[in-house]
Amino acid sequence: MARVMDDFFSQHAAEQPDQEALVYKDRRFTYGQYDDVTDRVAMGLLNIGVKRGDRVGIYIPNWPEFIFAYMGAAKIGAVAVPVSWRFTAQEIKFVLDNAGISALVMAAGFMGMDFVQNLKAVQKDLPLLKKVVIIEEDKAEAGMIPWAKFLAEPGPALEQAQATVEPDDPMLFLYTSGTTGIPKAAMLTHKNLISYTNGQNAVSDYGKGHTLLLNIPLNHVGGAVMAVIATLNSGNKLVIMDMFVPEETLRVIEKERVTIIGQVPAQYALELLNPNVEKYDLSTIQTAIVSSQPCPSELILAIRQRMGVMPQNSYGLTEVSGAITFTHPSHGEEKLKHSVGVPINTIEIAIMDDKFNILPTGEVGEIAIKGDPVMKGYWKRPDEDARVFDPKGYFHTGDMGRLDGDGYLYIVGRKKEMFIRGGENVYPPEVEEALAKHPDVLMSAVVGRPDPVMGEVGRAYIMKKPGTNPTAEGVKAFLKDHLANFKIPEDIVFRDQLPLTLLGKVKKLDLYQEMEKEFPKK
């Protein structure tokens, strides 16, 4: 049984060194090569002064180098801290500063985004950042270490470092936000991630011989854990796409004979709406997982008809290492359509009231989770740990649900305000904080509204300052300097007044009720 992540490499490199592990476009890596290159990364990190417990930033799109840096750090007990390639310079600064990043592995840019310029804009404010490794040698600026020169031949120091790594060592920081709008890092340990993927692989039938397609961001739990570590745990093949493009996804499924795919509902919908969908052979798909949001019944039917499999609904959070409930094709029509399934075998779910009492079957309360996949805590946020963990050790999700007599979980709603836009988590307080910087905005309230393609998109209700006349286009342009594109509200609605409580807080329930009339539930 694996204790730490490197145990999987030792196992697969010995048992199946020629088995394909990673595929990206025309680049293919066996488990032997995967083990070798991550050893070289690990040695390179040691050579630049990284040690157990240090945080290593990874500012790379969905390329193999992201995974190599991630696993190389794990091999020496360092912590990988992914940075979204979509982030603005200020968002990057926050993550690198908050995590205390001492070394950063980065690409030069992607999709028109200049990563080097983003870093240069904030590097003077990051005194702890001592070393920067860049993938593209020809884009290296003064002081940067080219990737090819960074990779190092393993030596005795690597074996010594590997021997010190413990299961409870943090391995991955994933940033999430809460009601404060201030991002915080969930600390996921080797033990968390191994226990989680043991449970995920069991419920999702991840035996040998599978090929999993990854077309969601590696800086999310779905990519970093449910894809990368699940395939490493099971010794299967992972096919990586750097961007989600519907028809390209269909082409890759056919070309690589993909057997497992995990996507948000919007991705499935866009693929099945593609006019060329009938051209592609999708018959190899055996498992289609739906994450982030429950799958509408019409989409379940469409997936079943075109992909030939019953999709699996799921429910999870970053703080518990991924999706911790799944439906299964054997569960029956009603359960598949309306529930998010049963828990994986490494966690326990309880439904609780506000006093931490476990409620009877069928009653609605807050979903609470306990087990080895649950995070160690939030990085440097004991106040948040105290808020989300109860005296019995349960993690309180902020989501409302109920369990039926068979142990199936049904999601009723969210206590917290987060909404999910096409698989990307959006936290209204963070958007409201950015809007507050606009010179013409007096007050704002951001909510998620239904969208047929993205699942949910943002709507910002704005009270203008007297004598000003901002435009929706102008507000969106302003936000582009402060937020990643997916966080920018789709709708900007100007109001003379917003509904307020006696304490001056926006009554968002009134706004949701107003929206329900415009977007009635189907």
Describe what this molecule looks like in 3D:
The protein is α/β, with parallel strands linked by helices. It has three domains: 16-165, 3-Layer(aba) Sandwich (Rossmann fold); 193-414, ANL, N-terminal domain (Rossmann fold); 419-518, GMP Synthetase, Chain A, domain 3. Helix 1 (6-15) packs antiparallel against helix 2 (31-47), helix 8 packs across helix 10 and helix 11 crosses helix 12 (265-273). The mean pLDDT is 93.
At the fold tier of CATH, the topology name of the largest domain is: Rossmann fold
Q: What class would the helix/strand composition place it in?
A: alpha/beta
Helix content: 25-40%
Please count the beta strands (DSSP E, at least 2 residues each). Answer: 28
Poorly predicted sequence stretches spanning 5 or more consecutive residues: none
Taken from the alpha-carbon principal axes, the silhouette is globular
CATH superfamily of the largest domain: ANL, N-terminal domain
Radius of gyration: 23 Å
**Arithmetic mean of pLDDT:** 93
The domain tally reads: 3
Strand order of the largest sheet: 2-1-13-12-14-15-16-17-18
**Total helix count?**
18
The largest pleated sheet is described as: 9 strands, mixed
CATH class descriptor of the largest domain: Alpha Beta
Ends apart, CA distance between termini: 47 Å
Give the CATH architecture of the largest domain. 3-Layer(aba) Sandwich
Per DSSP, what share of the residues sits in E-state strands of 2 or more residues?
25-35%
